[in-house]
Amino acid sequence: MRGLTLSKVILTTAVAVAGMNGFSSLTRAAEPADSIKAILSVNHDGKGAAEAQQAVKALSTADASQIPAVLAAFKGANPLAANYLRGVVETIADRTLRSGGNLPTAELKKFIDDRGNDAKARSLAFDWLKQADKPLAESLIPAMITDPSPDLRREAVARLIKIGADAKEKADAVKAYEEAMAGAVDEDQVKDLVEKLKKHGKTIDLQKHFGFLTKWHIAGPFDNKGLKGFATEYPPEKGVDLKARYEGQLGEVTWTEISTKEDYGILDIAKEVKPYKGAVMYLTTDFTSDSKRLVELRLGTPNAWKVWVNGKELFAREEYHRGMAVDQYRVPAELKAGKNTILVKLCQNEQEQDWAQRYQLQLRVCDPSGTAVPSNDAVAAK
Amino acid sequence: MRRSMTLLALALTLSGAAHAADWLQFRGNNGDGIAPDSDLPLTWSDGDNIAWKSALPGRGLSGPIVVGDKVYVTSSSGFRQDRLHVHCFDAKSGKELWDRQFWATGNTMCHPKMAVATSHPASDGKRVFAFYSSNDLACLDLDGNLLWYRGLGWDNPNASNSLGMASSPIVVGDTLVVQVESDAEAFATGIDVATGLHRWKIQRPRAANWTSPSLLKGKTPELDVVLLQSSKGIEAVDPHTGAVRWTFTDGASTIPSLSVSGDTAYIPSNGLVAIKQADDGKSYKTVWQTAKLRPATASPLVYEGRIYTSNTAGALACADAATGDILWQLRVEGPFSGTPVAAGGHIYLFNEKGKAIVVKPGEKEGEIVGKSEHGEAILCTPAISNGGLYVRSDGHLWKISK
């Protein structure tokens, strides 16, 4: 099924590219389309690498007028294919500029303007437009504040931060910072804006801004002595029932409510519940989506974990105490319209060092750009 | 006849085959950190023995490699450090010839002291292999054209370490040997340099590991083995098949890598252990073991019959490589992350604060004969080629030469 879908994407993209790309003759048009098709076929474990290598070599000899066509092929490309395509674009663009040639700046602008194009390809187009025609590239930045590309959005946020910093009137500064905050998704820019707005008496609800889930039910501890709990399927994994009672590591276990007011949504089990060692805790919460859609669950934790959405395991990672950060892990998830149940298994080991005592989780729901996707609690309440 | 010779010379030139003066990977072509150069400066400063200093746009701890008249180094940039760079500089002028960029397909989270571009790039003289903490592996020709790209982190999303990965791949014949080892998933692989495909892939002990593979030559080329180090010890594998020939099971460090000199491997293991492979290539024998030599982060250096280690206190210890007996110790200013290199009878160390320290080792003591400040953190292992010492600081690539 996956192969069929991929084939459709390849064919659709290749045909679309060949049709709109301006390859001048019919003979020449078929060859680049074949090359692009070969690149889009690369996949896990080196599949298609030999064909892609030949395709890159062939495409890289094209002139700069073909760059928009290669950029168009990014749509639907997997991360590996995107890097092959990037290699083609950079080779052509670099060669062109170093030899005194021109890039098709009007076409690059048009490509960037169309938010329906691939976000990475638009970001790449912007990078080269900056080198070819910096004023034109910079003229596009103000419209990028809610761009699907986090890289382009970052440019727009940085511009507004500078406007705010340069403003002579407080009202102008606040206006710029608030506009920037509306688009900011990177933690460093958000933190900078929070501090700047704070100086002007404005506070930001960071939990809401990032989309952290802050209200959960928690059950545990279950046994993780000798690290055996990670692979053990305890009852909550067979179905979440908030009224259920379980036999736990230290006696009977029930679901209780837990919430956090920490700005970045950190649930601190060691502090708020108990500093369990060799333990498994389960956390669950409901998330209401307006529609069926793809989102990213972004987690941070120094503990081993598994995550399920509506009973489907999405990822499992058995690593302890190697650090924790906002957006440490990005897990694609498909939400259905209406109520979705998120379940997290969080495991603590038995290390005794001071730095190995954290038992924490932060989890947010966002789109690929990092913009928060809020649970529609109004719908949930009905 | 003369014309044939000319054509042969031309063919060799065009083939881009490795030259003796190249520095193709972590610790150089032989993996020993030693160069034949004999005329490197002992001290340098602005306007004095610094041939050039070129800015790097991204972060990185990786060292440079030198292939012919070009210097290659990696870096990463962007808020998420997910923009991966391969830079190429002209060795003579320091001019950047190109900068190829890719998007990381694996995890880019690192400890603040680490960087996504920590692994040393490698080359077979015709291609450049750039490897990153995200386990992205890019292969370019010497002119920056992409040949193949592997997302080993994309293929194996659990094979990552939130502190960062640091193992540097090495080229053995036509195989690139790569270690990807973390708490959650661990493997080593031999990759065909021409195609990017796995020749072999073996499971490895599931534990965080920052060490790099090393080649130990056997009595005959067929008995050459790649030594894969981990907390469990050493696996000696056939570089072309991944078959395990023998194992050393006394445990080993997961930070400093073992060093090879001649037919002996010096393993950071409960101190330091020297071993030799048996003549039949099926086992090893221990030559000596000492608890008194304890390399910290930097790997040991074996030079002119002596072995040098630096400990956490910043002391450089010199021992007889044949016996492990300590000959002298010298207080140097650590800490060191990069492994020292040697040439012309001198040892070149770079501490994490960016100070270069040149030591002249003697029979009974070592002498510091030069100190130079770079003013930026240095955690890389430098390269030496054609009278130039190439080192990468936090923001720059430097060429030191007379």
Characteristic key phrases:
heterodimer, A: 382 residues, alpha+beta, Jelly Rolls, 3 domains, six-stranded antiparallel sheet, four-stranded antiparallel sheet, 14 helices, globular, disordered N terminus, B: 402 residues, mainly beta, Methylamine Dehydrogenase, Chain H, 2 helices, 43% strand
What does this structure look like?
The complex is a heterodimer of chains A (382) and B (402). Chain A has 382 residues and is α+β, with helices and mostly antiparallel strands. Chain A folds into three domains: 2-144; 150-204; 210-381, Sandwich (Jelly Rolls). In chain A, 42% of the residues lie in helices and 21% in strands. In chain A, a hairpin with a 2-residue loop joins strand 2 (245-248) and strand 3. Chain A is globular. Chain B is mainly β and 402 residues long. Chain B has a single domain, classed as Methylamine Dehydrogenase, Chain H (7 Propeller), CATH 2.130.10. Chain B is 4% helix and 43% strand. Chain B is built from two helices and 32 strands. The radius of gyration of chain B is 20 Å and the shape is globular. The two termini of chain B are 40 Å apart. The model of chain B is unreliable at 1-16 (pLDDT under 50). Chain A binds chain B through residues 42, 44-46, 49-50, 52-53, 56-57, 60, 79-80, 82-84, 86-88, 90-91, 94, 120, 151, 154, 186-189, 302, 315-320, 322-325, 328-329, and chain B through 78-80, 98, 100-103, 105, 107, 109, 111, 136, 138, 144-151, 154-155, 157-158, 161-163, 182-184, 195-198, 208.
What is the general shape of chain A?
globular
Structural class given helices, strands, pairing of chain A? alpha+beta
Cα-based radius of gyration of chain B, to the nearest Å: 20 Å
Return the average pLDDT of chain B rounded to an integer.
94
β-strand amount of chain B: 35-45%
* Sheet having the most strands of chain A: 6 strands, antiparallel
Count of individual helical segments of chain B: 2
CATH class identity of the largest domain in chain A: Mainly Beta
Q: What's the β-strand tally of chain B?
A: 32
Report the helical percentage of chain A. Answer: 40-55%
CATH architecture of chain B: 7 Propeller
CATH topology of chain B: Methylamine Dehydrogenase, Chain H
Strand order within the widest beta sheet of chain B = 1-32-31-30
- Main β sheet profile of chain B: 4 strands, antiparallel
CATH superfamily membership of chain B, which one? YVTN repeat-like/Quinoprotein amine dehydrogenase
Number of structural domains of chain A: 3
Number of strands of chain A: 12
How is the CATH topology of the largest domain in chain A named? Jelly Rolls
Domain module count of chain B = 1
Q: Which stretches of chain B are low in confidence, meaning pLDDT under 50 for 5 or more residues running?
A: 1-16
Residue share in helices of chain B? under 10%
